[in-house]
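dude i think i finally got it to work??
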Amino acid sequence: MKIFRSFFKLHQSGILAFVLCSIVFVLIFSLYDLPVGAVLYSAVLSAVICLALFLASFIRYCKRCRMLQKMQQEITVTIQHLPQPQDCKEQAYQELLKRLFQKQQEQAQAWQVRCSDMMEYYTAWTHQMKTPIAAMQLHLQAEHSPENRALLDDLQRIEQYVEMVLTYLRMEDMASDLKFEHYPLDDLIRASIRKYSQMFILKKIRLEYQAVNQNVITDKKWLCFVIEQILSNALKYTKQGSVKISAEESANGLRVLVKDTGIGIRSEDLPRIFEKGFTGYNGRMDKKASGLGLYLCKGVCEKLGHGISVASKEGEGTTVMITLQCEKVQQGDLVNM
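look at this
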């Protein structure tokens, strides 16, 4: 119906001209007392011929509209399938479209080169930053003192932010960096816990770790990033109490739970916590949140084929759940730190 209205509007001037000419002929014949039947017969015969041509033209118009609608889906890739122009006006429009498409392709290529150069620069920058960070950690670990432990805590935050930059840069093309293997999940969790052991001690937060004793199919580096980010958030927003890591069977596989006794998340913020740049009430109060941590965790989990969700109640704590494919090894036991 939309196509018919468009076609009718395009040819309404010709239809109107035909009707007006027929009326003029009928009026003139009637004024001169000439037989009007001949005019009416000619008008009806002409109308039938025009209707047949109108229908044929409408069918061609429909085909062109469908072709152009198909081109709308391919216009960012190619314009080779444009229909042949029927007149100079259409040809001029197609020439304009070709020039615009060529300009767009040139700008896209230039932007791609620019993004590639920017990616290479920031990737090199993050790798270069890791060297002085590692050197400073060694110097600070050489002497145990409250000041050095506090500096190590701050340095670890810097290292985490640098790692977040690298993850943000790599996430779009991380498919080429993935290496799926069978890993003992306990080894991955313990490695992440060791990274934040000093922070647990400094903040006097109790860690309850229930060994999982499961093998999972995942990429070690990327899953460790997710676990570390979740532990970092738990420590950031937990002033006292504990962080508990456990696992449970679910319909979709093994679900790892990281539960803290922190300040929790407001119910109105929960639906948006995985959005890029969203900090919520806690982030605005903290004034240090980037709004990228959980966004990156969500993106990485989607690439890995894992699920991630959050349950929280303000003032009572937060539980982050990661769903993985697993292979059972043996019964778990309880470890407290």
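Confidence is low (pLDDT under 50) at residues 329-337.
im so relieved honestly
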